[in-house]
């Protein structure tokens, strides 16, 4: 945890003025549905990617039947499928889980990486710039990488829990590449039912041919941008499967094994 | 848990059509800030009750410095203070924690109590009408009571954790009375950081002279109304105290001892 004095000083740059009626679109994390549904194998949502793009132009997620990894950058949704191809997502496609915001980083919080940076060092560097452990953050790293390991989950014929699906994930060793890491950091006090606690990052290469859920990387140079998010909303699915599901199991262990 | 078939049948009455841009105001639970702040003794918010009333006309909460219990009914906020008086709240007063919605119950889900009903029976009766354990519900019981026990927390001179404050709460034995129980039910999969899991009900007498956080009651007759809520939003406080707080402790035990 940051010391109180340091946090107070650093927090000044992140203050915002809430509107009278609704949270600012620029500081709102939108979670399509609680991630516990995905953990418990509810892989089919009724929300379209087009609906999600109306709520935010930056984010990550997956498609129905856990069909790969989704990256939303500058309002465009890309998918890295389990078969290895990267493609544009049609707005009519549906998703069981995405998280998005309107990208509007704090200029004061742009950080240039100082040289070769391992994955764990990169996360520590990013976290070191958070003025508080108690907010959400959107994170974007534009950089050149010595190497990158990503994964994509494989489209499922039948619903089954996320941890089981993740055991069959496709792993991609990208080698030297340039591109963007994007995603979010969620404070731990919200538990594991709503969203992935801590970091959750996906990658998309500059030429839009490579991507997926980040497993490991080594950055050679890069620019880190951070946007503090001061509010969150989530819809609860209307599907019969969600309404009838037993969601009483703690999803923390499954999320940790599937997402880290 | 309900059986799947029963849940699917019962759920039909609760389906709604989400708007293109934002969740329906009629199905939105608004949480002013995560309750873990209150649990950890952050008793001062910057949100006014007037701001909260713009987000909903039905709900419960407290005032800054944990000054009593708040009941919002038909767009009017009342406070039962620790000193025992019930009064109107001025919209300029501030709150560290409230939960509200726009009250719009499902007509099909109005239930007449069949006779003398103990507190535990009342909660079981209400829960028995939920089509799913996985949604939020707003709950309103208009009734005549043989007896009622409520509590109000006492305004604090200095910040201290909720469980410590609750040990000094004022308890009121109301005797025979008529009035309204109001509040919410929150699904357990969201943990204890955002809102009180399960039931959280306050009481306000018809003559607006009695009220507080419900501890126990015996209903003689009454009407139960239930409103399913399919989305939720929360703002994260901007106070320096919140940004600097250590919120890593699990609040479940403290919430259970303070609120049940």
If you had to describe this structure to a student in words, what would you say it looks like?
- 2 copies of one chain form a homodimer.
- Chain A is an alpha+beta fold.
- Chain A has one domain: 60s Ribosomal Protein L30, Chain: A, CATH 3.30.1330.
- Chain A contains 7 helices and 16 strands.
- The first copy, chain A, has helices spanning 4-11, 36-39, 49-55, 119-128, 162-166, 240-244, 252-259, and strands at residues 28-31, 47-48, 58-62, 69-73, 76-80, 86-88, 94-95, 97-101, 111-112, 117-118, 136-152, 170-173, 177-186, 198-205, 211-229, 231-235.
- In chain A, the strands form 3 sheets. Chain A has a 7-stranded mixed β-sheet with strand order 6-5-4-3-8-1-16, covered by helices on one side. In chain A, strands 9, 10, 11, 12, 13, 14 and 15 form a 7-stranded antiparallel β-sheet that branches.
- The first copy, chain A, starts with a helix and ends with a helix.
- Residues 1-23 of chain A have low confidence and may be disordered.
